[in-house]
Amino acid sequence: MMATWLKLEDVVFFILALVTFAQLDYVWWVYLVLFLLPDISMIGYAAGPAVGAATYNVAHHQGVALAVCLLGAWMVSPPVLLAGTVLLGHSAFDRVLGYGLKYPDAFKHTHFDEFA
Predict the structure, then answer these.
(1) N or C: which terminus of the chain carries fewer CB neighbours within 10 A?
(2) What is the chain's pLDDT, residue by residue, as a tens digit (116 residues)?
(3) What are the domain boundaries of the chain?
């Protein structure tokens, strides 16, 4: 039941990211092109699961995404706000699909396992 609530919360975050992006002066294909960019963080897994989990979690942490969004809004910087919006939308979409923050022991061990 808790996992369902968490996924519903992430649907809201994904919609929030899309609504925020719609307020920016970018064409939609820019969002689509940048959408998978946070997954580059998985390259950390080449150095082992602990490093991989750390790099993945930084790029997929919604607190980081919201902080970047707030920084972009405070600076009145559309590129920074775009970066935060992409991070938030991507991480929310991943979580709706069941990909959560990673534990350092294995890629498939995520924070969602605690609610299964």
Answers:
(1) N
(2) 777 888 899 999 999 999 999 999 999 999 999 999 999 999 999 999 999 999 999 999 999 999 999 999 999 999 999 999 999 999 999 999 988 889 898 878 887 776 65
(3) 2-109
Pseudo-torsion of CA 41, 45, 51, 55, nearest 10°? Answer: 10
CA end-to-end span of the chain? 9
Distance CA 54, CA 103 (A): 8
Whole-model pTM: value is: 0.91
Bridge-based pairing of strands 106-110 and 102-103 is: antiparallel
Consecutive H or E run containing 74: helix 62-75
